[in-house]
Design a protein that fits this description.
The protein has 172 residues and is of the alpha/beta class. It has one domain (10-168): 3-Layer(aba) Sandwich (Rossmann fold), CATH 3.40.50. It has helices spanning 21-35, 53-61, 94-103, 124-134, 147-150, 153-169; strands at 10-15, 39-44, 46-47, 68-69, 80-88, 91-92, 110-117, 138-146. Strands 1, 2, 5, 6, 7 and 8 form a six-stranded mixed beta sheet that branches. A two-stranded antiparallel ribbon has the order 3-4. Helix 1 (21-35) crosses helix 6.
């Protein structure tokens, strides 16, 4: 006799935020996923030392990491990873690069990406997808909140889109 055992979906939402926009979006995504009955582990990445604007810009342009505190995450039985980054100089935050390098092996876990930027995200989508692939993950969707264009309503719209993508990927 076979029994249908409900699958417990576990999602890790990890992000770095300097100005608070990426944090607000990451927390909203986590809140909405929890509201859908998904187990969520939310991790805001903290820099070991805050870089100056020039240092951060240089690392972004050269695709170099900047270290973050205690960014080791147990992927354990996670079904999905949601990663958020601010976009600086058309690229993802060096702190996100550090996080992904520390995780080292995403073990084929599907990843939904989100980003925040003031106007344009440049080639950040391609860069983030490649970072995920380099670490053994499977990038799926990429969503961006263009703050100046989308304004405050953009936060809700992008959060809704990320959650819809996550729910499409998670096992039923």
């Amino acid at each position: 006799m076979a029994f249908d055992v409900p699958v417990q979906n576990r999602v890790i939402v990890a992000f770095y935020s300097k100005t608070g926009h990426t944090r607000a979006l990451g927390l909203e995504i986590a809140r909405r996923l929890k509201g859908k009955g998904v187990e969520v582990y939310c991790k805001e990445l903290e820099p070991e030392e805050e870089a100056t604007l020039i240092q951060a810009g240089h690392r972004t342009l050269t695709h170099g990491p900047l270290p973050v505190k205690d960014c080791a995450i147990d992927l354990g039985d996670a079904n999905l990873l949601v990663i958020g980054s601010p976009i600086w100089v058309g690229g993802s935050s060096p702190y996100i690069r550090s996080f992904l390098e520390t995780v080292a092996d995403l073990k084929g876990i599907p990843v939904v990406l989100f980003a925040t930027c003031s106007k344009r995200d440049g080639k950040a989508a391609d860069e983030l997808r490649q970072l995920v692939r380099d670490q053994g993950g499977r990038p799926f969707e990429y969503h961006v909140w263009r703050i100046q264009r989308d304004g405050a309503p953009g936060l809700n719209s992008i959060a809704e889109d990320v959650v819809a993508s996550a729910l499409d990927i998670l096992p039923s």
